[in-house]
Structure formats: C-alpha cells, structure tokens
Amino acid sequence: MVWYEKLYERSNDTVKKIYAWEPWFFIVFGLFHLHRVWALLSIFDIIII
C-alpha cells in the first residue's frame, strides 16, 4: 500500500455529512460579522460612504 492510499483510506473514515442548513448558517454568520466590522470602521471614519 502506497502512503497516499493510506491517507485516502483514513480520510474516508472521518468524512462527515454536511447538512443543508450548514452553509446558510455560515453565510449569515459571516454577513452579520461583516456588517459589524463595517460599522466599526465607519465610526472611526476609515470607510466613508
């Protein structure tokens, strides 16, 4: 057995199912924090819109 076959075999055991809601959770999570950072930068006049 070649080393990369062993890696593939090991990674097959650790693959988890991705639920349908997970990508949406992280997109919303990211957008929420992005708007918070944007507000902080706007307060300090780093971004002028």
Question: How would you portray this structure in words?
Answer:
The model has no long low-confidence stretch (mean pLDDT 78). The protein has a domain of 30 residues. The protein is built from 2 helices and no strands. The longest helix is centred in the middle third of the chain and has 23 residues.
Helix and strand run:
HH
Structural class: mainly alpha
Distance between the termini: 60 Å
Tell me the strand percentage band. Answer: under 5%
What's the shape? elongated
Largest sheet: none
Low-confidence segments, ≥5 residues, pLDDT <50?
A: none
Provide the residue-averaged pLDDT. Answer: 78
Q: Key terms for this structure?
A:
mainly alpha, 2 helices, 0% strand, 71% helix
Helices, strands, pairings?
Elements: H1 3-14, H2 21-43
How would you concisely characterize the structure shown here?
The protein is 71% helix and 0% strand.
